[in-house]
Amino acid sequence: MPLFSFEGLTPQVDAGAFVAPTATLVGDVIVEAGASIWYGAVIRADYAPVIVRRGANVQDNAVIHGPPGLTTDIGPGATVGHNCVVHGAMLGAGCLVANGSVVLDGAIVGAGALVAAGSVVAAGTNLPAGMLFAGAPATLRRPVKGTGAEIWVETNPEAYAELAQRHRTGIRYVDPEAGDE
User: Fold this and answer.
1) Residues 68-87: pLDDT tens digits?
2) CATH superfamily of 3-172
3) SS3 (DSSP) at 25
């Protein structure tokens, strides 16, 4: 996995975390136990710290960064879906930011909330816990509980924790030049 120190700040990755070999971590990044950072994800903490809490998952091609002085915090068990951008935001425990969404500076996504795919959470917005938000800008649609979205919020952290363990032991580099198959 590409880890890069920047101006004396070096990523700290717990031994119990999974970081895909093509993910890139730069600077003041902390990845806690059980978290997973997937293929092509970039976490760049050159202006301010980025913390990926226990059991959170940052999926393929997501970009996590923040402006000077504003820590980005991916809460315990939170999911950042494929191709998302999280910039200087705080994600609560177990929330789900679905594929292709953008969460901007100073925004707070409450615990167990769901940001629907392709949504944009405007800077400084505070999304309450347990609610479903969609659109650009993201607006309140309804509670997550009792909807089809509830299963995604509840099962995604455990599913990705299990999948991370499978990838930890099940992937290997294939060198086509050497005839590996």
Assistant:
1) 999 999 999 999 999 999 99
2) Hexapeptide repeat proteins (2.160.10.10)
3) strand
